[in-house]
Amino acid sequence: MLCYCVMETNLYCISDSEEFQPVVPVVKAEPLKNQWADEDVEEDDVKESWEEENLGLSFQVVDDMLDFTQSAEQLGKPAASDLAKGNLTAPVIFALQSEPELREIIDSEFSDTDSLAAAIELVHRSGGIRRAHELAREKGDLAIQNLQCLPRSDFRSALEKMVEYNLEGIE
User: What residue ranges carry the coiled-coil annotation (predicted)?
Assistant: First the structure.
């Protein structure tokens, strides 16, 4: 379960582990309140608009996918670097549901020379990237839907365009 609180001028998300995590992207509550002061938007409306962190999740899942679909040159880092470090990103989590061999490769910490390439192939073959794409789209659509509680403004329009721009990177 996720809930939100405002501390100082930052909006934070509190997860089940009771850790305070800045909402991604970090939403500065005071500037938002100032932006909407003439439009009678309450702080609760700001929190509601980021419910379940749809915007942040959409961005994160797109980033997870790019690790498998872009070259090292495009990424500015080695492709599949998250997987190589053992990070379980969205495409990997989906792939693990249908590819038990992937768990063995990850658990071996890629001890065989070709194991990273094999793991990448399993992620592609399993549909993990396709399912991550669907999740990113779903969360992006929900983020835009959440933003509808805010008054029409250049700010809201910019946030909506930011979500769409992010999703264009995976279309």
Answer: none
Q: Which domain holds residue 62?
A: 42-171
Query: What distance, in Å, lies between the first and last C-alpha atoms of the chain?
Result: 31
Name, in order, each residue with C-beta under 8 angstroms of 56's C-beta and a sequence gap of 6 or more: 23, 24, 25, 50
Question: Which residue in the block uniquely carries the two structure tokens 């980021």?
Answer: 50
Q: Tens digits of per-residue pLDDT, 114-162?
A: 999 999 999 999 999 999 999 999 989 988 888 887 788 888 888 888 8
pLDDT in tens, 126-138: 999 999 999 999 9
Q: What is the CATH number of the domain that holds 157?
A: 1.10.600.10
Domain count, the chain: 1
